[in-house]
Design brief:
Helices cover 41% and strands 16% of the residues. With 300 residues, it is α/β, with parallel strands linked by helices. It has two domains: 35-119, Rossmann fold (3-Layer(aba) Sandwich); 144-276, Rossmann fold (3-Layer(aba) Sandwich), CATH 3.40.50.720.
Length: 300
């Protein structure tokens, strides 16, 4: 393939398509149900990034017709028992369909214990062990929003997944591991390699990828010469780098050297404006799924 700029995968445009579909489905749900889908978010940290992300969720949910409310806790004072008690109340509240705990939690609180306290049927983040187990075996359940969004991007961008070699750089429970499972499912049929911080000669692996996904959070990790000509590149990383030309003093970049990789790849996501918008869109889709599932249970 000649060194020409690749096609940009516009995450904002694709997310808008998904959100519009969710909005239409919510309207149909209201014809059958007594109320709109309801999402409750627990926020117990003072991270500016988390606060911004939660505001984005609230805005997107409102536009889709979803009832979203954030329960805010002082990170200096909140206790583990307080969070567990709140989750128990939300689990038993028939007016709540989806529950999301915005991470990270304060260090003194056991995140895993809190996540496991969410009712699996309301776990729209897909982090409860029951949902991760269902994902592993290919059974129906909630899939974490970011890997679900990546799969949606690939399909809507008409990337040929079946038989492709997908290389994922990053093995987190948030992105790398669930994405590997999704790509292995029989409706995708990719061949998957998962790399990580201890992988030797990383470039030898990435240069064989038809689909290359980086989800590490390290600016410049993937250089242009580490990208196979014609590959589809999905950049999940979000990193701040100093930039005196910007009013805020920094800019956001991904893990991939975008300008260099764009000359090699057939398709590539930008940062920002790539995977991020799809994450929120898929969260809305999960919330709708939770509401529809719970309505079906009440009717049977």
């Amino acid at each position: 393939m000649p060194d020409t700029d690749s096609t940009l995968i516009d995450g904002r445009a694709l997310a808008a398509e998904v959100r519009e579909e969710v909005q239409q489905a919510v309207a149909e749900h209201l014809d059958a149900g007594p109320r709109p889908p309801a999402l409750r978010v627990i926020l117990a940290n003072d991270s500016a990034a988390s606060a911004s992300y939660v505001r984005g969720k609230e805005k997107a949910a409102a536009e889709a017709g979803i009832d979203a409310e954030t329960l805010r806790f002082d990170p200096e004072e909140v206790t583990e028992d307080e969070l567990l008690g709140t989750l128990a109340r939300l689990n038993s509240d028939d007016e709540v369909d989806g529950i999301l705990v915005q991470l990270p939690l304060p260090d003194r609180i056991d995140e895993e214990k809190v996540i496991q306290a969410i009712a699996p049927a309301k776990d729209v983040d897909g982090f409860h062990p029951q949902n991760t187990g269902r994902l592993m075996t290919g059974a129906d359940g909630f899939v974490p929003a970011t890997p679900a969004g990546i799969m949606e991007m690939l399909r809507r961008s008409e990337v040929d997944i079946e038989g492709a070699h997908a290389v994922i750089v990053g093995r987190s429970n948030l992105v790398g591991r669930p994405l590997a499972n999704l790509l292995l499912h029989r409706d995708a049929n990719a061949t998957v390699t998962v790399c990580h911080s201890r992988t030797r000669a990383l470039g030898q692996h990435t240069r064989t990828a038809d689909i290359l996904v980086s989800a590490v959070g390290r600016a410049g990790l993937i250089s242009g010469d580490m990208v196979k000509a014609g590959a589809c590149v999905i950049d999940v990383g979000i990193n701040r780098v100093d930039d005196d030309t910007r009013e805020r003093g920094y800019r956001l970049v991904g893990d991939v050297d975008f300008d260099a990789a764009r000359k090699r790849a057939s398709q590539i996501t930008p940062v920002p404006g790539g995977v991020g918008p799809m994450t929120i869109a898929m969260l809305l889709k999960n919330t709708l799924k939770a509401a529809v599932g719970r309505l079906s249970e009440r009717e049977t």
